[in-house]
Write a structure and sequence with these properties.
This protein is mostly helical. Strands 1-2 form a two-stranded antiparallel ribbon. It is elongated and about 55 Å long. The two termini are 28 Å apart.
Length: 136
């Protein structure tokens, strides 16, 4: 799944994992926009045209978890050394929104987002710990 792909521009090999990281970053930006869009439309138009995220937040939360699953090999996890802080930050943001919304809105599906975020954060911790024990 993470085999290098051939680029046509300069015949250099680009790992597929870098495309997955770019996808997770784009989805994170869209998620932040989606959270801010509801209050923005209420301020501008006087009514909330776009409700706060519910089921789609579970899909957004699953993207970094999927990336962690794809990069679970030690070699792939080592290539993500520069992206680990971003993954933790994104998962923490997803966790905070899902937890606050699950408590305040009473949406049961957001509890699945909480579980997915916690699973992703524990996956990052596990892979970091496993890498440090392999390095010794």
């Amino acid at each position: 799944m993470t085999e290098p792909r051939q680029t046509k521009a300069d015949d250099q090999k680009v790992p597929l994992l870098s495309y997955c990281v770019a996808g997770v970053k784009v989805i994170f930006l869209l998620a932040v926009f989606r959270v801010l869009a509801g209050p923005f439309t209420e301020d501008i138009f006087g009514e909330e045209l776009l409700p706060m995220p519910t089921w789609e937040w579970l899909v957004v939360t699953a993207t970094p978890v999927t990336l962690l699953w794809l990069a679970r090999r030690p070699a792939d996890w080592a290539t993500l050394s520069n992206e680990r802080m971003f993954l933790r930050s994104a998962l923490a943001f997803y966790l905070l929104y899902a937890l606050a919304s699950a408590l305040l809105q009473g949406e049961w599906i957001l509890w699945l987002g909480v579980v997915a975020s916690l699973g992703g954060l524990s996956g990052v911790h596990y892979l970091n710990h496993r890498e440090s024990t392999h390095g010794r």
